[in-house]
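dumping this here so i dont lose it
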């Protein structure tokens, strides 16, 4: 009995450290500012965000700057105006930002022709009494705020062509033609957290469709006392489960961010008709500077950085728990 207890006690730290480093590579030094982002292109955003963090900027400024950088990139993913068009052929953008210290948030959805939707989301948070603006109203607000825009006069003809299309016997467009959202989470040297995400959403989505990314607790959630989580994947699979809120609550219960991300996938898969075929990927960070990532149906590359280190790592798809597993 004593031997078995001793073996268990020795195993615990091993389990903890296996959890502490998602995929291969070292953990961040304690107390360092840290930034984590979805997908390999998240590294570009992380590098900008880390420059801000090293210069004593807040996590909020860092995540906005990191996401703006990715919004400016070419058509690599589904971010910014170079992202994926909807079924009618024009781009509608969703973005969300959340600031840990005051538990503030702002978001925009279905935004057209604004170069940096993440800044529109931040302005909603800072300049209005609201949390979320959508569609035409979000665009008006962004323009009033003087945010950079492009000509969207061509959208009118695309909208009309879509409205008057022949739908006889036709299925609505399949809102699943590729997607790669940026979500960036940061911990600054003051110990505060923030997160930001931005996307053009699922390629060929129906005009007006909103995904998880601008929905607090689905695409992004931050609790300054606990941690932050961000999502990418198919919004329809994530928003029915409030994925990022779930991860933050699991961290509040004491789970390491890696374990929390994996547990969220297991919980979602357990009750979703799609099981582990759901398309959900998560990154998470806690206020101790520990991080994690997990995905349901694919090897998931993500980017992580702290002073002196910036890399892309991968986690294998979470698979069903084996019988008898305790978690
Ligand atoms: C959406 N979740 O609109 C977004 C797309 C995405 O990786 O994350 N792509 O469904």
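and the seq i came up w/
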């Amino acid at each position: 009995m004593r031997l078995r207890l001793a073996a268990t006690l020795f195993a615990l730290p091993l389990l903890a450290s296996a959890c502490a480093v998602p995929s291969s590579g070292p953990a961040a030094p304690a107390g360092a500012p840290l930034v984590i982002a979805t997908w390999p292109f998240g590294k570009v955003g992380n590098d900008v965000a880390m420059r801000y963090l090293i210069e004593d900027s807040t996590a909020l400024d860092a995540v906005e700057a990191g996401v703006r950088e990715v919004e400016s990139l070419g058509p690599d993913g589904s971010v910014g105006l170079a992202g994926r068009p909807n079924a009618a052929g024009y781009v509608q953008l969703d973005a969300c930002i959340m600031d840990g210290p005051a538990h503030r948030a702002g978001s925009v959805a279905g935004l057209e022709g604004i170069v940096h939707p993440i800044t529109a989301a931040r302005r909603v948070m800072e300049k209005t009494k609201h949390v979320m603006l959508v569609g035409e109203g979000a665009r008006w607000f962004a323009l009033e705020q003087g945010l950079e825009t492009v000509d969207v006069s061509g959208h009118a003809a695309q909208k009309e062509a879509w409205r008057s299309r022949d739908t006889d016997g036709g299925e609505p467009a399949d809102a699943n033609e590729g997607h790669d959202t940026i979500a960036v989470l940061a911990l600054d040297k003051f110990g505060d957290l923030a997160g930001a995400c931005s996307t053009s959403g699922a390629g060929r989505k129906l005009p007006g469709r909103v995904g998880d990314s601008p929905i607090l607790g689905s695409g992004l959630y931050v609790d300054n006392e606990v941690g932050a989580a961000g999502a990418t994947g198919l919004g329809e699979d994530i928003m029915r489960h409030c994925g990022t809120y779930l991860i933050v609550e699991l961290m509040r219960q004491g789970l390491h961010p890696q374990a929390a991300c994996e547990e969220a996938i297991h919980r979602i898969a357990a009750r979703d008709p799609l099981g582990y075929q759901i398309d959900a990927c998560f990154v998470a960070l806690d206020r101790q500077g520990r991080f994690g990532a997990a995905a349901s149906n694919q090897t998931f590359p993500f980017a992580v950085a702290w002073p002196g280190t910036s890399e892309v790592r991968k986690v294998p798809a979470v698979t069903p728990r084996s019988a008898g597993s305790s978690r």
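The domain at 28-315 is CATH 3.60.20.30 (Glutamine Phosphoribosylpyrophosphate, subunit 1, domain 1).
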